[in-house]
Amino acid sequence: MAISKKAGAKKPGAASKPPPSKSGGAPSKGGVAKADWREGFKKAQAGVSDMTLLSKVTNEAINENLQKRFQNAEIYTYIGNVLISVNPFRDLGIYTEDILQSYRGKNRLEMTPHVFAIAEGAYYNMNAYKENQCVIISGESGAGKTEAAKRIMQYIAAVSGGSNSGIQDVKDMVLATNPLLESFGCAKTLRNNNSSRHGKYLEIMFNSHGEPIGANITNYLLEKNRVVQQIRDERNFHIFYQFTKAASASHRENYGIQGPEAYAYTANSQCLDVNGIDDHADFKETISAMNTIGLTADEQDNIFRMIAAILWIGNVQYVENQEGNAEISDPGVPDFVAYLLEVDSGNVTKALTQRIMETQRGGRRGSVYEVPLNPTQAAAARDALAKAIYNNMFDWIVDRINQSMNPREQSANVIGVLDIYGFEIFDNNSFEQLCINYVNEKLQQIFIELTLKKEQEEYAYEQIQWTPIKYFNNKIVCNLIEEKRPPGIFSALNDA
């Protein structure tokens, strides 16, 4: 995000502070007052708030400065107009209403580093210069990106004004998207109890008075595979545990809902409960968010019906018959799945045990064959069906949210907040990790282009004397993945 253009501005009525009195002691032999020496010692112990002020910029100096600040409960540090955040994994009490208001209308340099200062800068620049703003949040998995995005939204909702009920409704809906999409798009991983398993770009739309009038969410890369498989001590998406633990009596009766231990898709990773996660309370918050967004009772019921169908699909088990083909061991399970999906039971059984092959002759449609699957193939087809249902449901929820938040008037400007996966390196990495890390490489490439490459090209063009900054341009990494000639990884996969 660009540096706030309010730098140096004083608040109305603010008087400049007089220089500190030195009556507390005579200057030392070096001519430095004791108070100044103590202040310098304090800074040395606590670290600097902006690392452009470091006397020596090295990896060791940066890490040492971040460590000093973290040990003093200072999790935010600037590098120029970039904010670095170190996840404390605990509540430091730094997001209260009083602290939020203290950043309102303040220049970034007037206050200690904070995500609220970034949000204030974006909101101020949008209003003052009528320019669209974007905050890009990047980092490793578990770094606290989703929490930072939530705090930016919290700040903008608090300071963006608007007295009529329509403006307040938009603010409420924007904030309600957090618990709703966290329930359906976040999960407990080894590194993070609330890890985003999808990317999200939120655009908040404002009128000419700086009041929010609507919003739009773009969804990226939902980790569909998590629906059917998790490694030990990780969990499926939060909503599965919320629903199986806190479902209403009618849902339990109509949809056959039991505890999470009763379903393969929630029990196989052996992680039903997590310290710090209250699935019952979170389910109430999810329902409240649905109501705030404007989902009707029927729409909510259909969502939970699909959740139940996915859980029961996961309980379909196979045996091998004499021909080596898959047979469903308990026919009652696909019958119940058909009831939940409101389709014919025979069609469900076919979808779970057969695949359709179609021949073509001279570009014309030929014969259609139903080919039986073996148990391994059938299990893959079962899981593919569950993933497709969940993915389509998630996309529908995002579309429904956008429908509710669609602006009723022409927007003047927008503030975008990008919250996407961080780099992921596991013992076993899949195609999803390749896509996730590719996205992060592209973000890094944009950052390098804007902050290093173009800036130095501008210096050279204007013949400004400076010490060139050496950096690794990751364009070669991106080319390795995305190039078509010579073929990169994606092209090679397409040809395989």
From TrEMBL:
GO terms for molecular function: actin filament binding; ATP binding; microfilament motor activity. Residues 46-496 form the Myosin motor domain. GO terms for biological process: actin cortical patch localization; actin filament organization; endocytosis. The keyword ATP-binding applies. InterPro entries: Kinesin_motor_dom_sf (IPR036961), Myosin_head_motor_dom-like (IPR001609), P-loop_NTPase (IPR027417). Keywords: Actin-binding, ATP-binding, Motor protein, Myosin, Nucleotide-binding, SH3 domain. SUPFAM superfamilies: P-loop containing nucleoside triphosphate hydrolases (SSF52540). GO terms for cellular component: actin cortical patch; cell tip; myosin complex; plasma membrane. It holds the Pfam family Myosin_head. Residues 1-33 are annotated as: Disordered. The keyword Ribonucleoprotein does not apply. ATP binds at G139, E140, S141, G142, A143, G144, K145, T146. Coiled coil: none annotated. Belongs to the TRAFAC class myosin-kinesin ATPase superfamily. Myosin family. Type-I myosin implicated in the organization of the actin cytoskeleton. Required for proper actin cytoskeleton polarization. At the cell cortex, assembles in patch-like structures together with proteins from the actin-polymerizing machinery and promotes actin assembly. Functions as actin nucleation-promoting factor (NPF) for the Arp2/3 complex. This is Myosin motor domain-containing protein. It comes from Sporisorium scitamineum.
